[in-house]
From TrEMBL:
Source organism, top-level taxon: Bacteria
Transmembrane regions listed in the UniProt entry: 6-24, 36-59
Name recorded for this polypeptide: Twin transmembrane helix small protein
InterPro entries: DUF2909
Keywords recorded for this protein, A-Z: Membrane, Transmembrane, Transmembrane helix
């Protein structure tokens, strides 16, 4: 489970980096905008929702337990 979460976070960060690249590159020097930034941000949203659903499913199936903070510390 830890590896899945870490991989999802890396994917989210990578898609943000790709969106930044397209934001800085597209529309300069008379070039048309390609829509790459929108696709990268859509991938980021999809990965975030998938990660949330996987964590929720793992909690429902009992693979992970909520720990919380001890009261009074």
């Amino acid at each position: 489970m830890k590896y899945l979460v870490a991989l999802a976070f890396l994917g989210i960060l990578a898609s943000l980096a790709v969106a930044l690249f397209f934001m800085l590159r597209d529309g300069r020097n008379g070039r048309a905008k390609s829509g790459g930034m929108v696709r990268a941000l859509t991938v980021r949203i999809g990965l975030s929702v998938l990660l949330f659903l996987c964590v929720l499913l793992a909690w429902k199936l009992g693979y992970i337990q909520p720990g919380g903070l001890p009261i009074g510390k």
